[in-house]
Amino acid sequence: MAAEAATLQDVVSGLTETDLNLASPCPPWTIGELLCHMLMGADRISQALSQSGDASEPPITTSQYYRADQRFSAATNADRIETASALAASLGEPDAIAAELGLRCRRSIELLTTAPAGQIIRTRHGDPMLLTDFARTRVVELAVHGLDVASGLGRRPWMTAAAADVLLELLVPDGQGDELCTRLDCDRVGLIARLTGRATLPAAHEQLLAGRITRLTLG
């Protein structure tokens, strides 16, 4: 999480207000609003730790976190849109967004490094999870939405190798990511983009992937 957050912060620091006002691939958000959604997501660790999970209830996995249920309901999506838009309007400038991103990520990383081993939390959606698994969802959010921001800016993706490792372990649990890259003629980030719906996947490739990947419900 630390490496991906630091890389994103460097990117945001170099943006202009014109960049922030560009349409993002996640309508109705602009690039600035999408970035604010990302920094709020990176800040969920403290909220999760404040709601400890019941040890008698089996925790869900990172993959199970990304399932289609109330977390993608119209009301939940409307709240996501409104809160990110309001924060973007409040922060305004790239430097302010970059500084807030850095602050929230540093706070989250400190909490992760000081939490007890085996800590079980409860997410805002009501899921009991191991804190370590929930932390992986924060990497997913930064990395996958980072692809969206890069696309909206017309730039090459900047996903770090550490984040790609987390995504591929999650998306291709049989460890055949390198083979799929060869078969689909793409690099690891390109494979992740295809498997998360950020790049077009021809029907023939869909057949190749059948039964070999984990499908995640992503916003």
**Averaged pLDDT, please?**
92
Sequence of strands across the biggest β-sheet: 1-2
| CATH second-level architecture | Up-down Bundle
Strand percent estimate: under 5%
- The number of domains is 1
Query: In CATH's first tier, which class applies?
Result: Mainly Alpha
Task: Walk me through the structure.
The chain is mostly helical and 219 residues long. It has one domain (2-171): Four Helix Bundle (Hemerythrin (Met), subunit A), CATH 1.20.120. Helices cover 61% and strands 3% of the residues. It contains 12 helices and 2 strands, in the order αααααααββααααα. A two-stranded antiparallel ribbon has the order 1-2. Strand 1 and strand 2 form a beta hairpin. Helix 3 packs antiparallel against helix 8 (131-153). It starts with a helix and ends in a 10-residue tail after the last helix. 37% of the residues are buried.
Characteristics of this structure?
single chain; 219 residues; Four Helix Bundle (Hemerythrin (Met), subunit A); two-stranded antiparallel ribbon
Explain briefly what this protein structure is.
The protein has 219 residues and is mainly alpha-helical. The chain has helices at 2-13, 17-20, 31-42, 44-49, 62-65, 74-91, 94-114, 131-153, 161-171, 177-184, 188-195, 203-209, and strands at residues 120-122, 128-130. The chain is globular, with a radius of gyration of 17 Å.
Q: What is the fold's blueprint, element by element?
A:
Blueprint: H1 2-13, H2 17-20, H3 31-42, H4 44-49, H5 62-65, H6 74-91, H7 94-114, E1 120-122, E2 128-130, H8 131-153, H9 161-171, H10 177-184, H11 188-195, H12 203-209
